[in-house]
Amino acid sequence: MNLRAGYPFGLVKNGLPFDYPKLEKDIKTEVLIMGGGISGALAAHYLIREGIECAVVDARSIGLGSTCASTSLLQYEIDVPLHKLISLIGNNNAIKAYTLCEQAIFRLKTLAEEVGLKKFSLKKSLYYAAHKKDIPFLQHEYEARKKAGFKVKYIDGKNMFDEFGFTAPGTILSDTAAVTDAYLLTHYLFQYNMKRGLTVYDRTPVISIQHHAKDVRLKIKNGHTITAGKLVYATGYEVLNYIHEPIVKLHSTYAVISESFSEAPRFGKYDGVIWNTADPYLYLRTTADRRIIIGGRDEIFFSPGKRDKLITAKARQLKKDFNKLFPDKPFNTEFSWTGIFGSTKDGLPFIGPYKPLPNSYFALGFGGNGITFSQVAGEIIADLLKKKRNKNVSIFSFERI
Description:
Elements: E1 4-6, H1 9-14, E2 27-34, H2 38-49, E3 54-57, E4 73-75, H3 82-89, H4 91-115, E5 120-128, H5 135-148, E6 152-156, H6 160-164, E7 170-180, H7 182-194, E8 199-201, E9 206-211, E10 216-220, E11 225-233, E12 249-258, E13 273-276, E14 283-286, E15 292-300, H8 304-309, H9 311-325, E16 333-343, E17 350-353, E18 360-364, H10 370-385, H11 393-396
Parallel strand pairs: 2-3, 2-11, 3-8, 5-13, 11-18
Antiparallel strand pairs: 1-16, 4-7, 5-7, 6-7, 9-10, 10-11, 12-15, 12-16, 13-14, 14-15, 17-18
């Protein structure tokens, strides 16, 4: 599947920072992770930490699927608002899902420090009402988060400009969010863990998979085979090649990044990440090199061709969206890109075993929280493989659908 197009800034800026070999022999491994993006990298990290032998394969060069197209904005807020998620899955599970995403941000910060990646910054998160009619919804969400114990503040429209430098009917200000570089973090995680026994192969397409009672056998395009005791699917949206149940709805999402400003741009008093209540929602953040990234304007995914033809028009629209918020800030687009984005009915990922495929585990961080969900998935799967009890498995399991 063609997962992205255009010029993702992470790929333009970082290029191919490290080289990885193709798999050119038969191998056996305790666990094979299929997928060399951020989900696979985090799964591998937690498995290696637990002393589990594992290898990673990817059909592309490492990180060149959805990961390099990520805008690397980390939030604990799930695409389904907390008060709505409570009505879908119950109070305890909904709050736990949000809490796990909040914890994931701090654990990812620790991981970034551990592997030597400096591109990780904690931020505040501004969730603003796109229209006046959204105020009751926003207030309801604020009350749900406050009751659940999250550090949030409600700011009405009268104080919006002084606080944030733009006008809106109201906003929820959250203490916890972050920005990073998902593409570079993926490479740093692999490099760190390759020194600890991980093997990573890219440009190694898998053409067939056979699940057996005691192992999984994979054939790669060049004819060699991989025999694994367990197989972790960390293939993101390409999982639809292996699971034919309607677990995710695909969309095309778009992003642009500005030229570098002469001074670091700020949004009022806070250098936070910003998103709104529109559907699809608009989101934006600053970068360490004095740029602004804007994303959104999603469309239902039909084909890569139709998606890619819209890049130029969507880039213009996203620039206009920014100019409406900040008419005094010049925004000159330098790069624009598009990628596939997936959503589930409850906004949650699919993590854990899948009964129709013996010896399989899935790390599918769908939605706007793909990176934080992938951190959660890495911990859960490592626990399951070590036969440790993990009380969060049921929240994200395939059994819930």
